[in-house]
Target: Lipid-A-disaccharide synthase-like uncharacterized protein
Amino acid sequence: MLIDLADIVGGYLHDVFVTQLDWWVLLGFVAQILFTMRFVVQWVASERAGRSVIPFAFWTFSLGGGTLLLIYALYRRDPVFIAGQALSTFIYIRNLQFALRERRAQKGL
Model:
């Protein structure tokens, strides 16, 4: 029974991570790594500040990873993923505009 389960799981994992591996999957992994990095930079910045902060790099990684994930979702024709990433990408662009405006204002002081 456990051997059969191991064979089924092993076959599934082989199919998902080896058989289906192509350039689009690699793009999806790169996109996911960029998207994950946004949380890493936010966490590190918050730890250094001793409070919750959202650094400029958070929005940069969000936009880069989100845009690549949107491209990947469009290729995969996944309507749920497309809807989520399309809205998120707009939000990331808007937050980058706010962050850039704030940076310009601080330089002008």
In short: Residues 22-107 form one domain. The chain has a mean pLDDT of 90. The two ends are 71 Å apart (CA to CA). The chain is about 85% helix and 0% strand.
